[in-house]
Amino acid sequence: MKSQHKCIVIFALVCCCALLIALIFSAVDVWGDDEDGITVDKCSRTCRVVLVENIPEDLSIPYKDTVSLTAGLHELLDKARRSVEIVSPWWALNSTTSGSNLPQAKQGKILLHQLKSLRSRSVSLRVASGLTDSNWTNSELEALTRSGADVHYLNMTALSRGQLSSSFWLVDRKHMYIGSAGMDWRSLSTMKEFGIIIHDCSCLVLDLHRIFSLYWQLQYKDFLPSIWSKRLYALYNGDEALQLRLDDTEAEAYISSSPDVFCPKDRVKDIEAIKSVIQEAKTFIYISIPDYLPMLNRSKPKYWSLIDSMLREALILKGKLDVRVLISCGDETEPLTRNFLWSLRALCVESLRCSLEAKFFVPRERSDGRLSRISRSRFMVTDSSVYLGNLNWLGNELAFSAGVGVVIRQRLSENITVVERVKAVFERDWHSHYTKTLDPHQIPVCSTHTVKDNTSA
Ligand SMILES: *[C@@H]1O[C@H](CO)[C@@H](O)[C@H](O)[C@H]1NC(C)=O
Ligand SMILES: *[C@@H]1O[C@H](CO)[C@@H](O)[C@H](O)[C@H]1NC(C)=O
Ligand SMILES: *[C@@H]1O[C@H](CO)[C@@H](O)[C@H](O)[C@H]1NC(C)=O
Ligand SMILES: *[C@@H]1O[C@H](CO)[C@@H](O)[C@H](O)[C@H]1NC(C)=O
Ligand SMILES: *[C@@H]1O[C@H](CO)[C@@H](O)[C@H](O)[C@H]1NC(C)=O
Fold first, then answer.
1. CATH number for domain 46-452, candidates 3.30.870.10, 2.170.130.10, 3.40.190.10, 3.30.450.20
2. Where does the record locate the signal sequence feature (predicted)?
């Protein structure tokens, strides 16, 4: 009888231990791949920045201390020795539309070919991608898989009811790219895109890699884990930003992420990053974005006030603040965009001394008469910071879609800063022939002044 009791007690103890061990491992994680010997204490923070742009050939806009996106991405691929990791909203490098034989489609095919040949250089390629509607795969990703790439698919509909809009690269855990361009031949030809490449910056890349690892884990899952591994926690945030040197100038940087449910402990959400950049601005805020629509549109449309109220507060309370918004217009632009921008503008009466100006980047007229956007640039620059993110400023995207952003803060220095360089890019576009001032009386805003298209982009 006594020994039977003993047995039950021991059995219970063993069960408890097993449960404890299981709990510990689920939190600490055992799946991990090592981080190539790069650790938070042993990483590089003396980095080089390359601002990359794609400027369509038919626009006469000069590069401004920037290099072409194609050249920037090829430089990254040439440097790769061990690994290339890519997240892109969609894959369309090998154009299969009627435009496939256009000279503009060539760069996409070359890039795809380069990615396929990574294997022959013993460089691994890992890709995280969203599902395209009902299809689990995409023919291009299948081709990459056949040439040795590892592809993980995320069902964003199930995870957050949004899209995977993230667009970034990690190379050898040392170099990174974040920008508006995805793996789409149009991003390398007919669209205007803007991004940033940072070389030799393993400290910052380590943190961005944690977001990649988070996506990697979510393959085929239809729910989020209730507890994230510690190895996915953010390393830096707004209060404890990474101190680094960018091109020989002091800077602070951190990475933000969206949606909220994809943000483990300490990770700054994109909306918080946008808020702090707006709040820290003293004299100007310049925003270049395809859409500005503070609305959520799910079962029924709702006002989504977060960014709109931050801008209102800044305009009213800061005094002598100059806000410029450059949006990109096309047939898909929601007409209410104009009303929202106009209402912001109306706040700045003379006594407040603030100013809000809005312009739109002219669309391209396609052969079927429809107007499509040219610019997909997504960034904000102020007197002290740059925020460059993947998401459009629409309630639906910021609330539900996956994206990443990078914030760089720099004080004025004897050397030219990244913040000043991004400002120069904004000012070049703002004053170019391809922008028009927003007119409250003209509906739709982008009906006149277009760039003619003789391709079928
Ligand atoms: C690219 O498209 C062409 C024709 O559209 C096709 O022959 C070729 O196999 C495709 N390449 C890849 C890598 O998918
Ligand atoms: C997946 O896409 C291919 C073309 O890309 C199409 O032929 C096929 O029918 C699609 N499959 C499903 C289940 O929709
Ligand atoms: C993605 O998730 C949604 C919602 O859970 C589900 O209806 C859909 O079938 C899933 N897609 C695939 C390809 O499994
Ligand atoms: C400016 O750049 C030079 C070299 O390019 C560097 O030695 C110097 O420290 C920089 N100045 C500041 C204030 O960072
Ligand atoms: C909201 O979505 C519905 C359909 O999904 C669409 O008809 C409507 O134009 C959208 N409204 C806004 C303001 O985006």
1. 3.30.870.10
2. 1-32
